[in-house]
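Annex B. Sample input.
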Amino acid sequence: MKIATRTDPNKTSLIRSINQAGIKNNANIWRRLSKELSSANRRRVAINLSQINRVSSPEDVIVVPGKILGAGMLKHKLSIAAESFSESAKEKILSVGGQCLSFEELIKTNPKGTNVRLMK
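Annex B, continued. Sample output.
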């Protein structure tokens, strides 16, 4: 897979490491995530907690290739990995016992990507 040229070397490194984790562990979820992250910034998603609450179940693991916003309420415990979190979203996720993870942390704890849902 071709990774788009980026001016931010940290972002390029992150995308490359996620893609390599997908290849190494035969996990399509990480390859799809790297493809989403390599798209243009204007195509990046911003998802509210209310949207996540509607489509998720307790104890789910959600991956968002964009930003999590704090609009709405989260009514159950989730583990969420995203590119970034608003402060209010972090507070609400942590208040129900959930986790705010980086992509690297999630890949380290779940290299196969089992039971991980990609929201875009």
